[in-house]
Amino acid sequence: MSEVISKYKALCDFLKDKKCILAFSGGSDSTLLAHVLSEVSPDSLLVTVDNNMFAHDFISYTQQKAKEFNLQHKIIEKDFLKKFSFKSNPKGRCYNCRKIMFGSIKKLPEFNEYDYFIEGTNVSDYLEDRPGVLINYEEKMISPLVECEISKDDVLTILEKLDITYSQNTTCLATRIKLNEEVTSEKLKRIDEAEEIAKQILPEMSDIRIRSHEDNAIIVVNEPFEIGNERLFQLKYALLDLGFKKVVLNLMRYHKGELNIKSDNEGNMIQHLPYNIDLHQTYKHMNNNEKLENDHLSLETQHIKYDDITISENGKISMPENTDFEDKLFKVITSIKRRKEI
C-alpha cells in the first residue's frame, strides 16, 4: 500500500498547477485523473466526445461526475457513423476513433491556453493490444498514469481508498462487433440493451460484455462458471428476444491487462506483448527516461538491452529468472513504443 500511496503522491506532484485538458470518459482511469486535477489544478477542463458509440447513460454520467469534481466540462458531438473509416469497422478502428476524438478536442478555440493535453492510459494497458495508443504519440499527448508507473490495480486501489465511484460502462460498444462487420446504430442499441439485461441478471459480475458476431451474441464475463444453468437460460431467451439468432457463452474469463509471465528452457522469465515494438523510438524514449540508467542501455539489430533485460522487436521482453522481473518490467514498459502497422 505504501508504494501505491507514493505513486499517488507522485501523480499529484506531476499535475500540480498544470492547467490540463483531460479526455474524460468517467471510467476508473480518467476519474482518478479528474479527482487529482480537482485537488491540484482546478482550472483544468474535462472534455467528453459524444460519438453515439457508448452506453445510453454515458454522457449524463460524465456530466454528473464533472459537477462532483467542480471542474469545467465540455461535450463535443461527433457522429462517427458518418465516417466510413469507422463505420466499416476495420482492424484500425480504435486508432481511427481516437484520431477523430482527440483531433476534435485539439480544435477547441481555447486549446492552446492549457499546459497539458492528457488522457487515461495506465501501465497495464501496455500489456494489451491497443492500437489507439499510437495517437498518443502522434498528438503528443501526456499519459500521467504511465509517467507515474501506475497500473490498473493501483488505480482501483486508490479509488477505493478515496471512496470515489466510477463508471464501468465507458468502453466503446463498437468494439463488441466483429472486425470488418459494419457498425450500425441498430447493432449498437441492441448491444447496449443486451448488456443492461445481463447486468440485471448477473449483478455480481464486475465485467460483462455482449459481443455481436453476425447477429450471434457471445456472452463474456469475468467468472463464466459461476452463472449457473437457470440464469444462463434466462439470459439466453432475453437476448433472443432482442433479435440475436444464437446466444453463446465464452468459457474464457474476461480479463484486462494482466501479466502473463512464463519461463523458457534456458531459465529466462518472459512477458510477451501482443504487438511489435518500434525499437528506435523505444530506445530514444528509454534514453530520455531519467528513471533509467543510460549507461546500461544499448540498441542492437533486433532488440534493446537494458541491464539484464532484453526487449525484442516482436514484443518479447525477457531476463534471467529473478524475483524483481515484474518491477523491472513496469519500469521499462513506460518507454515502450509500439510499431505502427495500421
UniProtKB/TrEMBL annotation:
GO terms for molecular function: sulfurtransferase activity; tRNA(Ile)-lysidine synthase activity. This is tRNA(Ile)-lysidine synthase. NCBIfam families: ATP-dependent sacrificial sulfur transferase LarE. Its EC number is 6.3.4.19. Keywords: Ligase. It comes from the Archaea. It is an enzyme of class 6 (ligase). InterPro entries: LarE, Ni-pincer_cofactor_biosynth, Rossmann-like_a/b/a_fold. PANTHER family: EXSB FAMILY PROTEIN, NAD_GMP SYNTHASE DOMAIN-CONTAINING PROTEIN. The keyword Ligase applies.
